[in-house]
Amino acid sequence: VVSWNTLMSAYAKAGDMGVAQELFDGMPERNLVSWNALIAGYAQNGQSEKAFSIFSQMLASGARPDNTTLLSILSACTHAHSLDDSMVEQITSLARSANSVSVSTALLNLYAKIGRIKEAKEIFDRIPEKDLVTWNAMIAAYSQNRRPVEAIELFRVMQAMGFKPDSITMVSLIGSCSQMGALGLGEWVHAYIRKNSIELDVYLITALIDMYAKCGNLDRSHLLFSELHWKDLASWNAMINALAIHGKGDEALKIFSSMDLDGVLPN
RNA sequence: CUCGUCGCAGGC
Asked: DSSP secondary-structure letter at A128?
């Protein structure tokens, strides 16, 4: 079984769900991990509907879902294009009774993605042993729902409780500063990043490029962009948008035409 | 052997 599971999840990770499904169907025996690997595969490949239908088959077969199953299903819900309310209620009631930090964090994230921020915060408050991922998820929830003030307030609480933030925390904070047009605060966060040697990855640099542009400091955006060596689609878009905001359409077009020289295709 | 958190733009 273990070898079949390993093989199946290798195909799932490679995005070949056709083969993964065939392996699952042809297995001499299945265990919980087999179900979990198949569901996780569909969830990770954006085929949420398939993940749900395998999940129902799993329940019908008498297998008991564990926390890993719930995490994959919650992830499928979070990335689904459309969700009916009865599905959400069913999954969330299962997830609420799981009493696990990771399941609660995934549930919090689902509520946030569907705009039910109040419920997300309730889940967050009830998690006794919050870890870094939990804090990051809630701060991101506020940032993504355009509630920058609450995001920053929660970061203060996180600090007061002695948690060390990472680059993911910083991306949400910088995003909040962009939304508020708060240059001073943005510069403070940038200084905090340097002082605490937080890793500057593409995500964080892109957030900084966007923040400086939206807060009126285009030169800093330019500088960060030129120092960024592995630019991806989002970082190019951020820089093009930065120039556009400042009325520099000609420069934006120039940057746009150098994208393909860098091997990135515009969207 | 399977699992939770992050950026730009666009669409609506």
From this structure: S
- Measured from the CB, is A171 under 7 Å from any atom of strand B? yes
Size (chain A), residues: 267
Cβ atoms of residues A235 and A204 within 8 Å = no
Nucleotide whose C1' lies closest to the alpha carbon of residue A12: B2
Query: Which nucleotide has the shortest C1'-to-CA distance from A78?
Result: B4
Cα–Cα distance, A170 to A234 (Å, whole number)? 17
Enter the DSSP assignment of A262: G
Q: Please state, in angstroms and rounded to a whole number, the distance separating the CA atoms of residues A52 and A262.
A: 39
Whether this model's ipTM surpasses 0.95 comes out as: no
- Residue A55's H or E segment, with its range, is helix A48-60
Residues A35, A14: Cα–Cα separation, whole Å: 18
Whole-number average pLDDT of chain A:
96
Which residue is closest to B9 in terms of CA–C1' distance? A237
Is A145 within 8 Å of A117 (Cβ atoms)?
yes
pLDDT at A98: 95
